[in-house]
Design a protein that fits this description.
The chain has 14 helices and 21 strands. It is of the alpha+beta class and 470 residues long.
């Protein structure tokens, strides 16, 4: 007679597993009934097989020490953070390491038709967890938090990469990851035993053709959204009558300039603060249609700090999207040493890396990193103010005014002395409303683009495995 749990036991939290069903792991999550049901249904479908059937030449990357990174080195070093949505790989922010890491670690080398899977931390099973290397790459290796592999001749590499993007595959990774106090991970055996759809090559081509069309449509809508966002700066400056000078070439001659001693004696004494771009931009702002005033006269710098989050939303620099200022939610922060406080309609202006242009107009109350200045608009419409702070009229100045090499930041006095145009309040709200309408349309296009791709994934998955992923 089988042992039975009492009817008073919460069956969602306590369950029984036969000893004969244990498969090497003893953690409870691995044996939840819903997990067992999911895999039973998955195995029942045609052409479902283990990923190891398609893998050829698979291995982890390498972990060179962080102190060896230097732009003078010849080898590109790709990390999990360089994996991007839609199977893409970014070569914009990669690190560079010495040649010996390429020469001595053949299996970590990046090659055309490689498939990359993130195997550590929050990147696992995210929308940035898989990448496909579609073009030749020279002198590049991957990080140890990435598993790279090639495919056998029976399978189209891009098709396999797309299969790893399906919700059912992501669900397997979440079910099977090893929860570690320091960082979650999936090991090689978990990857090789993933159950994926491996049909004949003719079906692979049909599915890929469908997905190429969907990806192209998504890319087109995203491009339309970006065009709308790019138009905001021109519209704003045109309404203010501000004509910025063309960007000068970065030549030695252009980097040399003279200033009268009387111009520098009362403030900063470094060359960066008196670059021609800063001077020309200031003149352009003051030559606009409307009167200007210093930032310190139109807003209040709020300095209140707390040491407890108290269930409030915490915002760090990583939570603000560059250029748009949109809030990007992340896992809730549970503890802080100190943080600033902000209210709805306050503006968070970054002290650090101003070229990232992470200006946030708060739509809720919360707490924030001390790397933000919290500004309360007193003589200006907060929405209009935030849009102007994101404009090239401000970024052109702040990128020149920052100091420090490792963590370039702005001095408070330089922020306080920024010139701010002050149209009549009615004009400010009119400009802000027009810009917000542009942003709303761009956001809608991005939502439609993402929804179209997710719908296509669901359709492909339904064709393969019906309702298994739900």
């Amino acid at each position: 007679m089988d042992y039975q749990l009492s009817e008073t036991v919460n069956q969602d939290k306590i369950f029984l597993v036969k000893r004969s069903d244990l498969e090497g792991r003893l953690d409870c999550e691995y044996y939840k009934p819903e997990r067992k049901l999911f895999f039973t249904r998955l195995r029942a479908n045609n052409y479902i097989d283990k990923l190891m059937t398609a893998i050829k030449d698979g291995s982890y990357g390498v972990l060179p020490p962080g102190d060896c990174y230097d732009d003078c080195h010849p080898v590109k070093f790709l990390r999990a953070t360089d994996l991007k949505p839609d199977l893409n790989l970014s070569f914009e922010s990669y690190k560079k390491v010495p040649q010996k890491y390429f020469d001595n670690h053949k299996r970590a080398r990046l090659r055309r038709n490689d498939i990359l899977i993130a195997v550590k931390g929050a990147t696992i099973a995210s929308n940035k967890s898989v990448a496909f290397v579609s073009s030749p790459v020279e002198n590049a290796i991957v990080n140890g938090s990435i598993f790279r592999f090639q495919c056998t001749d029976l399978y189209i590499p891009e098709f396999i990469a797309f299969m790893l993007e399906l919700p059912s595959t992501k669900k397997q990774l979440k079910y099977n990851l090893v929860a570690n106090n320091a960082v979650d991970y999936v090991d090689k055996s978990i990857i090789k035993n993933l159950l994926v759809y491996l049909p004949p090559i003719g079906i692979q081509k049909q599915i890929l053709t469908k997905m190429h069309i969907v990806y192209a449509e998504k890319k087109q809508k995203e491009a339309q959204a970006q065009q709308l966002l790019d138009s905001i700066n021109s519209y704003l400056l045109n309404e203010l009558g501000i004509e910025l000078p063309p960007e000068e070439k970065n030549t030695i001659r252009q980097r040399m300039f003279f200033r009268k001693f009387s111009e520098v004696s009362a403030g900063r004494f470094d060359a960066a603060a008196f670059q021609q771009q800063v001077e020309n931009t200031r003149k352009a702002i003051k030559s606009g249609i409307f009167n200007t005033d210093k930032l310190k006269h139109v807003v209040k710098f709020k300095a209140e700090q707390v040491t407890e989050i108290d269930a409030r939303t915490y915002i760090g620099l990583e939570n603000i999207q560059s250029n748009t200022g949109e809030y990007l939610p992340s896992e809730e922060k549970t503890s802080i040493s100190s943080a600033g406080t902000f209210k709805q309609d306050d503006i968070l202006f970054p002290k650090l890396r101003p070229y990232l242009n992470k200006v946030f107009h708060a739509s809720f109350d919360g707490v924030c990193s001390t790397e933000f200045h919290v500004l309360q608009a007193s003589k200006i419409d907060p929405a209009f103010f935030s849009f102007f702070l994101r404009s090239k009229a401000v970024v052109n100045q702040t990128t020149c005014l920052m100091t420090g090499n490792t963590l370039p930041r702005l001095q408070t006095i330089d922020i306080q002395d920024l010139d701010i145009p002050l149209p009549p309040l009615e004009k400010q709200t009119e400009i802000a409303a027009h810009i917000q309408a542009i942003r709303n349309r761009a956001k809608q296009l991005r939502v439609e683009a993402a929804a179209g791709l997710e719908q296509a994934k669901r359709e492909v998955e339904a064709m393969i495995i019906g309702e298994t992923s739900h």
